[in-house]
Amino acid sequence: MLGILRNQTYSRLFTAQVIALLGTGLMTVALGLLAYELAGADAGAVLGTALAIKMIAYVGVAPVAQALSDNLPRRALLVSLDVFRAAVALSLPFITEVWQIYVLIFLLQVASASFTPTFQAVIPDILPDEEEYTRALSLSRLAYDLENLISPMLAAALLTVISFHYLFAGTVAGFLVSAVLILSITLPAATAKTRRSFAERTTRGMRIYLATPRLRGLLAISLAVAAAGAMVIVNTVVIVQARFGLSEVEVAWAFAAFGSGSMVAALALPQLLDRLADRPVMIAGAVILTVGTALGAAVNSYAALLPLWLVIGIGYSAAQTPSGRLLRRSAQSEDRPAIFAAQFALSHACWLVSYPLAGQLGARIGLEATFLVMAAIAAVAIVLAVKFWPAEEPADIPHEHPELAPDHPHLREHRTGGKHRHAYVIDDLHPRWPSAA
């Protein structure tokens, strides 16, 4: 897996991702503690609302930002967004009111909604080989997992000597170092695109995504991930501090347990995906998430919470990590940024529902019932994923183009005037998925 780091461009991008994630991880812990300081036992509701605002920014901004940035230099765009995020994060330690959390989180995530899809779409251009790209996806997932593990551990150590307000400084530093690393490399130029209207560029990724069966299945799995993940992210601080009466340090260690499980799965996935298709791996991960969330209703001690968070972390990573492979093979290279932006927006729409639901239900009907409700949502999502995503998915799909002239370049390329087969993706020549598939 680490062999791909010999690619200097990718290794610097990966390092930038790790450092920015480390800073973001410190912010996650600090934000939860800040919400508890301002709202006490209602911290879950406050944090759930803050994270819902984050998701609104993601869902509403990502496709528009991708369309606006189509013709902008990638490196300049990524560096500018990192600097802007650092400037916003610099204001977080000075928050004294709940509404201020909401405003700054919105601004921070508007920038992230522009940054992340652009960053993700660059990687396949740097690593065009699918095997290398698979390793990069697992390494990227591992980076997220290490952030979930190391950031809480680092936060726990720092909290013994400083106030949690100072953890936000790590977020600022992470974004600035990320900007410097990206500035130090040259990124591949974006593939030349067909000229389209702004409205068409904004909606193109969504149309490709929703017309592709495997991606509709991916969206359902994203809902299962969000339903289970929201319980961990929103209610860990409430479970540990309000229910068990423990300290900020124990909150950090609970997040570390979740990150450890995710890291275990990320390390195992490259070899697993060499032998198994994406679909069974991702559905199995979603099942683990669902069962673990249902078991959360019975947790009555911190000692029981830690292994459960570990198991949910395993499912969380297994269900998500292969998604980049699905996106890569579901669009032409020129449409890749649009389809990554669509996944970013649609997956976060799932979090937009799950975050406030986990927070508000936890405050109103109790955590036990909330665990069961979120597990039920995840179970329904798994059923939808199985329905939308066919178990048999041939690499090449036979189809024909009765609307094309016999001498059309596409038909000449495949040496046929009628039915032919090739790797099928939605594009200008293939606007609908073949019904026979």
UniProtKB/TrEMBL annotation:
Source taxon at top rank: Bacteria
Keyword Disulfide bond listed: no
Coiled-coil features, chain-numbered ranges: none
CDD domains tied to this protein: MFS_MefA_like
Pfam families: MFS_1
Residues spanning the membrane: 12-39, 45-64, 148-168, 174-194, 215-239, 251-269, 281-302, 339-357, 369-389
Major facilitator superfamily (MFS) profile domain residues: 9-393
Subcellular localization: Cell membrane
Annotated keywords: Cell membrane, Membrane, Transmembrane, Transmembrane helix
SUPFAM superfamilies on file: MFS general substrate transporter (SSF103473)
UniProt topology in membrane: Multi-pass membrane protein
PANTHER family, A to Z: INTEGRAL MEMBRANE EFFLUX PROTEIN-RELATED, MAJOR FACILITATOR SUPERFAMILY ASSOCIATED DOMAIN-CONTAINING PROTEIN
Protein's name in the database: MFS transporter
Organism, scientific name: Nitratireductor aquimarinus
